[in-house]
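Extended Data, panel c. Modelled sequence:
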Amino acid sequence: MIITSYFPPEIGAASNRIFHLAEGLQSDYNVTVVTPLPNYPTGKIFDGYKRKFKVKSCEKNTNIVRLWLYASKSKNKFVRLFAMLSYSMSLVWFFLWNKIPDKVIVQSPPLLVAFTCMFFLRSKKRKLILNVSDLWPSAGFELGALKQGFSYKLLQKLERFNYKSADLILGQSNEILTHVGKITSKPQLFLYRNYPNIDKQDITETISNNQALKIVYAGLLGVAQGILKLCEKLDYSSIELHIYGSGAEEKDIKSFIEKHKDLPIYFHGRVDRTELHKELKKYDIVIIPLLNRIYGSVPSKIFEYAKLGLPMLYFGGGEGEDIINEHGLGYVAKSGNYEHLNSTIKSIDKEKLNVDLKQRIQQTAYNNFNFGKQLNLLKNHL
């Protein structure tokens, strides 16, 4: 059983990661995914799921159980807390009335949801695997979403409890595993990167009639990504910026574009993943920004874009920066330094972003970011 707060048809790295994990485990296990009614990132229950408390289905040989929650994307911390509590309460009810298998993978964050699972599913006969994709509450503090105080200390206690209750911890970065290792030595630790499981695609030359460097961002438009500030700080003298996605900053980004019609910024909205992969081929380079360097965070876009053969401009620091440099996947600008970002962009020779470079990036990805190989190693630990 995999318990997660995000799953398709929701978009984003978290839902894609769990989908591929569930799909990959099917050859060895009868897999059930327990997840809320889809609502992310809109904060509203998707059409087809409204006014329902539980929806069961079988999708691509995976059993899916979708539970009720109070959906919201409110900035009010109490409303957000109630939303997480509502899903936690649904999980407790589900645990009481359903047989839980002897191997359970729990996604964290959200910390409160993970705590609910780790607390209620503790058993000597059951193996609990905690899949840690971000380090909360420290990541929340670095993003400015949390302040140190009583609630922060409480979240730290939940974090420690979750780690100490796990038999195996999957971390998507070495920084995450190092952090966990400082708290407890009880669980086994396994580096589980967010490698996508996508078919190899043909690389074609980008055809452009102008000299402007066509930069594209695709993904969530949230606080962590800082796309609004990116729009404000970029030097547009020799570039175009194209934006795909949706999220908390969407309205502000659209408003900025409307007020600055002279700037070559183009908002394309949200498209499904298959269509997005086709769209991205139109551009010279993809940008992967983070508003602040977040310890433990490695954007999964790195691995996905590499498999598509897309040169990258990385602007987030940390372990992601090391991966870009080590494998020659593109360019790196100093985290948070927009002056250096603009100078880095000016140093990019558009002519070098050619088919040969893209094919090399793609081959590097398939050699080093192998989903199947990583999954087989994981199965040996389960």
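The radius of gyration is 21 Å. This feature is highlighted in the accompanying rendering.
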